[in-house]
Amino acid sequence: MLWETVRLAIQAIFRNALRSFLTVLGIVIGVAAVIAMVTVGQGSTEQVTADVEKLGANVLMVLPGQDPMEGGPVGTADPMFTVRDNDMLENQLASVGLSAPISQSRARVVFGNENRRTDVVGTDNRYFEAARWTLARGRFFDPAEVQSGKPVCVLGETVRRDLFGYADPVGETVRIRALSCEIVGLLQSKGASTFGADQDDFVIMPIKTFHRRIAGNSDVSTLFVSVREDASTERAKEEIEILMREIRRIGRGEEDDFSVMDMKQLATMLSGITDILTGLLSAVAAVSLVVGGIGIMNIMLVSVTERTREIGIRLAIGAQARQVLLQFLVEAIILSLIGGLIGIALGLGLAILGTNWLSIPFTPDPGIVLLAFGFSALVGIVFGFFPARRAARLDPIEALRHE
User: Fold this and answer.
1) Radius of gyration of the CA atoms of the chain, in A
2) Can you tell me the distance from the alpha carbon of 42 to that of 282, in angstroms, rounded to the nearest whole number?
3) Contacts for 236 with CB less than 8 Å, ≥ 6 apart
4) How many CA within 13 A on the CB side of residue 304?
5) Rounded to whole angstroms, how far apart are CA atoms 50 and 231?
6) What whole-number distance in Å separates Cα of residue 104 and Cα of residue 149?
7) 329-368: per-residue pLDDT in tens?
8) Regarding beta strands 258-262 and 179-187, do their DSSP bridges make them parallel or antiparallel, or are they unpaired?
9) How is the chain split into domains, by residue range?
10) Is pTM beyond 0.85 here?
11) Backbone phi, psi, residue 40, to 5°
12) Of 271, 237, 275, 228, which is closest to residue 256 (Cα–Cα)?
């Protein structure tokens, strides 16, 4: 009995194939949009986590100015750090494993006829270890080169590709402003960050070289701190804040003129924002499912009107009202499920395109796919019930008189 009802419903749907497809278009768009939005959102969350892991485990960044996560500017008006400040963090705090001073500026790097404007970073070997950089070729700085401020540098992959193509840059010399700098190493590529920033677009040199030949001062803009494995970042953050207040002579009751950013907290915040945006966009997309349901109700009412005489004949020869109701209800459900299946395929396809375009992981959630499919069936039941009940309540005599 049920199979016969399903067969009749499928025949009725494909009898007007174009009309049926246009009817379920709202369901298709709604299901596809929800699946695509959720999948891209989950991929963004995973990418944020992966980017933080690339920076290294238990990493803190100390910046001049108020915490930008709380709306404060990272201030050029606030005093910058010094290399001595950095060394005091590493030497006096038991929770700190490594602390690397970082200064940077934008400059044009030239090799032969090729040039590129990029970030020029001054630091030392502690930064490579704390940020988990590995070498593709060459070496890091010798201690003597760091101490003396020798003009040597390590390239990021993007700079190497633009200036040298596929050639090995190690041993070559590039010009940065008026400084000729020997390339001693090439870093492994880390690719783009969550927000599309190129993490390989820089040149790194010893910080003394940077201060003397590029910046012309001894300012340090960032302290890149790696917390020991056996210490918590929360405890390390508290100790850093206490010591930095002493170093910078900040009195009781005065606001900090620096900020300590926990990269794990930043990742959690960014993931939370991504989840909220994904939820809002998915909710907007889900409206299409309701619109699609209204379309199904409308076309089923039209179908009942068109098939009034058929319904009257079935009732006259002994069909029960519940059988007529079941026939039209099954037809509405199958219509919704067809839209749901097409929407799932379209949504996964859009998600693949979106994640490839944004360079984020493709992480489909089977639960969301099943939920979207189940919701499409529910739409068919809810919006198909009224037309089905109307068909079941038709008077057989009046229905047979219908032209």
Assistant:
1) 33
2) 12
3) 58, 60, 93, 95, 96, 225, 227, 228
4) 24
5) 22
6) 15
7) 888 888 888 888 998 999 999 999 988 887 788 888 888 8
8) unpaired
9) 2-51+268-401, 79-256
10) no
11) -65, -40
12) 237
